[in-house]
Amino acid sequence: MKLAINAFNIQIGGGVTHLVELLSAADPYRYGFTEVAIWSNEKTLALLPDRPWLKKISIKALNKKLWHKLWWNFRYFSKEVKQYDISYVPGGTYLGRHSPFVNFFQNALPFEPKEKRRFLLTSPAYYIKLNLLRLTQGLTFKKATAVIFPSHYLESLVFQNIRHTNCRFSRVIPHGINPIFFNKPMDENQLLAHKKEIRLIYVSRVDFYKHQWHVVEAAGLLRKMNIPVQLDLTGYVGSKKALKKLKHSMNRVDPTGEFIRYHGHLPYTDLPKWYKEIDIFIFASSCESISSILLEAMASGLAIACSNISVTHEILKDAGIYFDPENPEDIKNAVHQLINDTKLRDSCRKKAYLHAQQYRWNHCADQTFSFLSDIAKLQ
Fold first, then answer.
1. Same structural domain for residues 196 and 109?
2. For residue 257, is it left (φ>0), alpha (ψ between -120 and 50) or beta?
3. Which CATH number belongs to the domain containing residue 84 in this structure?
4. Closest by Cα among 342, 303, 297 to 321
5. Is residue 109 domain-shared with residue 250, that is, in the same domain?
6. What is the DSSP string of 157-194?
7. Each residue's pLDDT tens digit, 47-64
8. 170 and 247 belong to one structural domain
9. Which residues span the domain enclosing 328?
């Protein structure tokens, strides 16, 4: 069998990470695939591993603006893949005619009205884009032979929002965690409250549903309690207006830059070194399908203060302290609880590391290619 992957709109963030890790861990031969061809832009293809079974294809349209990519996806992809047994669409959108195809949903934002409304006034163009994605991904879902979701939360959300679909099969296959992040936590006896510097970190793209400014406010409240926290924020800029809001908050809470630092985007491979110096990890997103960042923090054996949303409970379970991501006081209380309670912090770190063991990229790749093979054989 031959598999075609339509990655026309995979170019930044978690989508690229998922594709790179999936193909790096995959062994398609085990599931009857002799060739895997992938269509994407040149930048994304350059990040993918070289494998004898992997054929990388890029054309001019896939390196241009979005509407060029959409037109190619709609008009030409079906012709490109006539000789392939099945196609896989990790970007969530395909309106062509090739069948069978398996769709992978990994974006919850288009299906969360409250989260979309954050962009109505702050970024109207992005708000329109999210609604277009809701339309195109909804149409894709209705046409798909089968669908893969990274979490039960997203599966439930999409099925609630889209009805009358022809999709007959669905599977929940979570992301994996790169082995470089696994760091078994040792017994911890030190009271953080007695340290000269308590290191906090929040790793995420800067955007309106990530609430970095509320985390900054929380750090300021902790300093007012004479708790010597140092907050590091890192992540690429998803919204320039959100970055402006973050910097405004930083200048107000810490005008001299004494204890809050924004580092911009850090290379993926640098994060494990940072995590070894960190005391508490903060995750304050209010919308996720699944979070690779949260999974990596769990594998790193970090104590985690986490936003109180459905998908984080599915992933982190009882291994963190939860808070309302839009309430700086609540964030402060969650972090303070981890700082003050050594036994609680130690328990959370060990439970998080234990829960992280089930998320392996080889498991994700095996389940994905097994499911694709099963669907292809049904046709």
1. no
2. left
3. 3.40.50.2000
4. 303
5. no
6. HHHHH--S----EEEE----B-GGG--PPPP----GGG
7. 999 999 999 999 888 888
8. no
9. 179-356
Residues linked to residue 158 through DSSP beta bridges, in sequence order: none
DSSP letter at 65 equals: -
Same domain, 158 and 234: no
Q: Are residues 267 and 306 in the same domain?
A: yes
Give the strands of the sheet with 198-203, arranged side by side.
Answer: 260-262, 229-234, 198-203, 280-283, 303-307, 321-323
Task: Name residue, tokens 């294809």.
Answer: 57
How far is Cα 126 from Cα 120, in angstroms, rounded to an integer? 8
Q: Which residues contact 333 (CB under 8 A, 6 or more apart)?
A: 323
What sections of the chain are H helices per DSSP? Answer: 13-25, 42-47, 66-75, 77-80, 113-122, 124-143, 152-161, 212-224, 240-253, 271-275, 292-299, 310-316, 328-340, 342-356, 361-378
In this prediction, residue 6 carries a pLDDT of 92
Give yes or no: residues 183 and 171 share one domain: no
Query: Tokens for 108?
Result: 């919850």
Question: SS3 of 76, please?
Answer: coil
pLDDT tens column, 322-361: 999 999 999 999 999 999 999 999 999 999 999 999 999 9
The total number of structural domains in the chain stands at 2
**Amino acid in position 218:** A
CB 149 within 8 A of CB 364: no
* Measured CA angle at 250 (ends 248, 252), to 5 deg: 70
pTM for this entry:
0.91
> Dmax of the chain from CA atoms?
67
Distance CA 283, CA 315 (A): 13
**Do 352 and 365 belong together in one domain?**
no
**Residue 199 and residue 119 share a domain:** no
Helix (H, G, I), strand (E, B) or coil at 57: strand
Q: Is the CB of residue 237 less than 8 Å from the CB of residue 243? A: yes
Alpha-carbon separation of residue 178 from 17, 243, 367 (angstroms)? 10, 28, 17
Average pLDDT over residues 222-247: 96
- Output the CA angle 277-279-282, nearest 5 degrees: 110
Q: Tell me the pLDDT of the chain averaged across its residues.
A: 92
**pLDDT for the residue numbered 284:** 98
| H-helix or E-strand spanning residue 102 | strand 101-104
* Nearest-angstrom CA–CA distance, 372 and 376: 6
